[in-house]
Write a structure and sequence with these properties.
The protein is of the alpha+beta class. The protein folds into two domains: about 1-140, Jelly Rolls, CATH 2.60.120.10; about 145-220, Orthogonal Bundle (Arc Repressor Mutant, subunit A). Helices cover about 40% and strands about 25% of the residues. The protein has eight helices and eleven strands. The protein has helices at about 1-5, 15-20, 105-115, 115-145, 145-160, 170-180, 180-195, 210-215, and strands at about 25-30, 35, 45-50, 55-60, 65-70, 75, 90-95, 100-105, 165, 200, 205. The strands form three sheets. Strands 1-8-3-6 form a four-stranded antiparallel beta sheet. A four-stranded antiparallel beta sheet has the order 2-7-4-5. A hairpin with a 5-residue loop joins strand 4 and strand 5 (about 65-70).
């Protein structure tokens, strides 16, 4: 499967690694909003997104929906869950758009890691980076202000989309993601719009003064 062979995880590894990982792969076709796997279900497969987008999320104790990450074409999804001792998905996955991809088998991933130690080391490096990012995020969430968090989020999005932004989350989901109240998020966007920093509504925004946001976002960045 050429899509998996081009994934950074397999860079520098023999082509047979991709062959091992894609053995018994099942095609995945999902409509927008369709659940790909549920929280607590047995984790038998991880996913490779070919077209469309997917998200992993949980419902909080108060019923609020919290989206933790959005996955795009070419990305692997839920590979970490393949190594959890309890063998279950820790979150729910849902198609954000119509989606095509592949379900890759957990057992073949385990066997490939035993056969190809460099694959296991690359997976471990990726999981370690994810843990490091989460530690930084918790530190940032407990020490930064709401404007700093939102500015940092928008500037990260600007790197991928340019000055014309389409938010991948609803404003309520984004507020939960940033750990702020939805009313606070709405007020910040309205204030920045009044000040000429950005312009737009709902999910569509145009950045007019990146310098203002960049200065706010600087305090949220780590040196490495």
């Amino acid at each position: 499967m050429s899509l998996l062979a081009r994934h950074p995880l397999l860079r520098g590894l023999p082509r047979d690694v991709a062959t091992d990982l894609t053995r018994d792969a099942l095609p995945l076709h999902a409509e927008a909003g369709q659940i790909l796997f549920g929280e607590g279900e047995e984790a038998r497969h991880y996913l490779l997104i070919e077209t469309g987008e997917a998200e992993v999320m949980r419902y909080g104790y108060n019923g609020d929906e919290r989206v933790f990450r959005v996955f795009e074409p070419g990305q692997l999804m839920a590979e970490a869950a393949m190594f959890m001792p309890h063998g279950r998905y820790p979150m729910q996955a849902r198609a954000r758009t119509d989606l095509q991809g592949w379900r890759l088998d957990r057992q073949h991933l385990h066997q490939a890691c035993r056969r190809w130690p460099d694959l296991a080391l690359k997976l471990l490096a990726g999981l370690s980076q994810g843990l490091y990012d989460q530690v930084n995020k918790v530190d940032w969430m407990t020490s930064s202000s709401a404007p700093e968090r939102l500015a940092n989020y928008l500037m990260d999005l600007q790197k991928r989309q340019g000055d014309t932004l389409t938010l991948p989350l609803s404003q309520r989901q984004l507020a939960a993601h940033l750990g702020i109240r939805a009313e606070t998020l709405s007020r910040l966007l309205n204030d920045w719009q009044s000040q000429g920093t950005l312009r737009g509504k709902r999910r569509e925004w145009l950045l007019l003064d990146r310098d203002v946001l960049a200065r706010l976002a600087t305090t949220a960045r780590r040196p490495f």
